[in-house]
Amino acid sequence: MRDATYPAIRAVTTLDHDPAEAALALARLDGLSALRALAAGELPPPPFAVLLGFEIVEVQEGRVVFAVEPGPQHYNPIGSVHGGLAATLVDSATGCAVHSTLPAGVGYTTTDLQVRYVRGITRDTGRVRCEGTVVHRGRTIATAEARVTAGDRLLAHGTAGVLILPPAARTGSTAPPGSASG
Q: Residue 9's pLDDT is what?
């Protein structure tokens, strides 16, 4: 039961684009070009990135760097930034590092994620960066690792397994036009 002293907080984020249409546009590009277009603002950012304040700051084949400025909107009830922020950075950076190696129409999904927290994050931590790099890229499975840092301080690090999805395996709004699943 909610105490009337602390009313429910409601926030609405409106989008100026359809995320499903943006996903289709992204699927028409090879991964490196798609990520560079996102970083340059030529394609709209995914809604979750807007919600969390993530931005792509560097993109190379097999390497992607995200950044975020931790704020009170990222806090958990015990007075620090929720660990999910670092975990989501690791998931995003590792997945996008793999994405940067993929041809047009090929998708991916995370199969597993391991995150180790080294230091707490607060709004006083300052700008946080997460660098993801591909460790292994096979035909159907890839692995990647990421480091979450603030300056020279390691905050968290992790690894991910990534399943590479051929165009025929993609479904719904992420299926490229004319695919078997579309």
A: 54
